[in-house]
Amino acid sequence: MSSQQIPEENLPVEQGTAHGAVEGAGDPFADPGLPAHKPRIQDIDERAANRSERAVAFMFTLSMLATVGFIASYVIFPVDQIVYIWPFGHVSALNFSLGLTLGLALFLIGAGAVHWARTLMSDVEVADDRHAIEATPEVKAKVLADFADGARESALGRRKLIRNTMFGALALVPLSGVVLLRDLGPLPEKKLRKTLWAKGKQLVNMNTMEPLRPEDVVVGSLTFAMPEGLEEDAHDFQSQIAKAALMIIRIEPDNIKDKREREWAHEGIVAFSKICTHVGCPISLYEQQTHHVLCPCHQSTFDLSDGARVIFGPAGHALPQLRIGVNSEGNLEALGDFEEPVGPAFWERG
């Protein structure tokens, strides 16, 4: 239907006609301007301003205390301590305290800055024209003047309590990062040089969780073992099994080439660390005919009939061997700990 066919009363009314808007209404897109500024209570009452100042300073002070708590938590709580905290359940005491204190320190700095800006800094809205990307000397001068006005209106020089506590909070927070540098490496202790193996510790089959007997290990088989007393639900199970996991293989004594390996075995049953000496991957691939074991990560290959020496791949040295025997109950037992630390070339560095 064309406009000529539309009834006159249904056509849009043009502005300025007798049927339209009032004449002289003006530009509908004109800038209405900024609303009148309403002062805050802090602008007219110095006591209210002082209360806001104290509130901001209080938050900055709490931030400093939280940072001190972060550092103290790092020293107080052992890395393996587990606590129950409702509603989170069982969590690491160290991780929970570090996250809580550092989160509070950062939150309180932000909350203090926001409260400062909303209650004490100038809230007068300023409209400015858009300008070219390249600043003119006049614009540069205006920016510097605006910066000076902002610094003056922030009352940073006059509100010394806020200034000093803010500087204190900002100075202490970076110490959290300095303390975290401790995690770049372990403290100089001997915990990586020792495992749970000791004289008299029975070898427990990791599949059946029963003590291993010599007749359980047949020639050509591969069995994985761990020390008795180590429970899978223990909080330090992963860190302990990463050092103590064993491969148990039975080889005909005449086929063992290395003299020490033969002496540390029991009737051809040898026990070697399961942890690869390259980057610590668990070894699990065994070639029955050659007595070679292969690490699945980077293909380091060890000859278990010749002291577990490296015959291929990037591993730096042989797998540590555990000296074993049989106790009065007929079960396989350790006759001591490994003579060198297990894992990726640790003994070469330490």
Helix/strand layout:
Layout: H1 41-44, H2 46-76, E1 82-85, E2 89-92, H3 93-119, H4 137-153, H5 160-172, H6 174-180, E3 203-205, E4 222-227, H7 237-244, E5 246-250, H8 259-264, E6 269-273, E7 285-287, E8 292-294, E9 301-303, E10 309-312, E11 321-322, E12 324-326, E13 332-334, H9 346-349
Antiparallel strand pairs: 1-2, 3-4, 4-5, 5-6, 6-11, 7-8, 8-9, 9-10, 12-13
Tell me about this structure:
- The chain is α+β, with helices and mostly antiparallel strands and 350 residues long.
- Helices cover 33% and strands 14% of the residues.
- The strands form four sheets. A five-stranded antiparallel β-sheet has the order 3-4-5-6-11. Strands 7-8-9-10 form a four-stranded antiparallel β-sheet, with no helix packed on it.
- Helix 2 runs antiparallel to helix 3 and helix 2 runs parallel beside helix 5.
Radius of gyration (CA) equals 38 Å
Average pLDDT for all residues: 86
Strand tally is 13
Largest sheet: 5 strands, antiparallel
Poorly predicted runs are 14-22
Structural class determined from secondary elements: alpha+beta
**Individual helix count:** 9
Order of helix and strand elements from N to C terminus: HHEEHHHHEEHEHEEEEEEEEH
**Strand order of the biggest β-sheet:** 3-4-5-6-11
Q: Per the principal axes of the C-alpha atoms, what is the gross shape?
A: elongated
Strand content is: 5-15%
- Give the proportion of residues in helices: 25-40%
Question: What is the first-to-last residue Cα distance?
Answer: 93 Å
